[in-house]
Amino acid sequence: MVIERQERSLEVNGSAMRVVSVRPRVAGALPALVYATDIFGLTDSALRSIDRFAGYGFAVAAFEMYHRFEPAGTALAFEADRDRALADSKRVGFRDLDADVAALVAHLQADPGIDASRIGAVGFCFGGHVAFRAALLPAVRKSVAFYGTGIHNGDLGAGGDSRSLARAAEITGDLLLIFGSRDPHVPPEGRETIARELTAAGVRFRISLYDAEHAFLRDEGPRYDPELADRAFAEAIAFFDCARASRVLRSE
């Protein structure tokens, strides 16, 4: 599908949050995805990923997680800004991230071009944990967390333990969690903890394991695996089920 991109600003608790919205150029109400980036923000790599989801029929809304202390439009370089990105990820509060996601979901629900019954979330690394917590919102029906860090031990941003797994019983939608088997950030015991706690909470979920390292979908850097990235992306698309979106007729 042909896509188009727009930018806007949403106010969240007195702070202006930049949002990049990408959606296919089609008629009708579209399913939507809240997109949470890795610690480097809305980089060119992230934008290519966003475009790809939109090309499959989704209205994708990606937000800048560090808007309370970084200038709008800040995208951190994969190697050169690693220390700054890590520091920013420890500076942002997980409750602030929750507020950002809630504001973006409310914005999507009010958009006549969005099918409010088909709002999902997707995130990568740090943003994978954010997407997991997005599932705590009743309006978020499906969430995909790509190698989400800190889910197993609650480590997310500033403010100590986010206790995300302890709140799992609040999740009413479906979860897909995708990990690399050689990811040191989420070891086997961490994945086992996630599976055990989600099962005990009665959550509908699936964990998919790929023979890959952390961040294997990020299309830059030494850990990128194009074949497995394609397979994992296809699994996410099938999970979200964009069949209705693919049947929407193109507008002239």
Q: Specify the biggest β-sheet.
A: 8 strands, mixed
Question: Which percent bin holds the helix content?
Answer: 25-40%
Total beta strands: 8
Please report the distance between the alpha carbons of the first and last residues. Answer: 13 Å
Radius of gyration: 17 Å
CATH topology: Rossmann fold
Give the structural class: alpha/beta
C-alpha geometry: globular
Describe the structure.
With 252 residues, the protein is α/β, with parallel strands linked by helices. The protein has one domain: Alpha/Beta hydrolase fold, catalytic domain (Rossmann fold). 32% of the residues lie in helices and 25% in strands. It is built from seven helices and eight strands, in the order E-E-E-H-E-H-H-E-H-E-E-H-E-H-H. The chain has an eight-stranded mixed beta sheet with strand order 1-2-4-3-5-6-7-8, with helices on both faces. The chain is globular, with a radius of gyration of 17 Å. The model is unreliable at 243-252 (pLDDT under 50).
Describe this protein with a few key phrases:
alpha/beta; Rossmann fold; eight-stranded mixed β-sheet; 32% helix
Summarize the structure.
The chain has 252 residues and is of the alpha/beta class.
Secondary structure elements and their pairing?
Elements: E1 3-12, E2 15-24, E3 30-36, H1 44-55, E4 59-63, H2 82-91, H3 94-109, E5 114-124, H4 126-134, E6 140-146, E7 174-180, H5 188-201, E8 204-210, H6 226-240, H7 243-246
Parallel strand pairs: 3-4, 3-5, 5-6, 6-7, 7-8
Antiparallel strand pairs: 1-2, 2-4
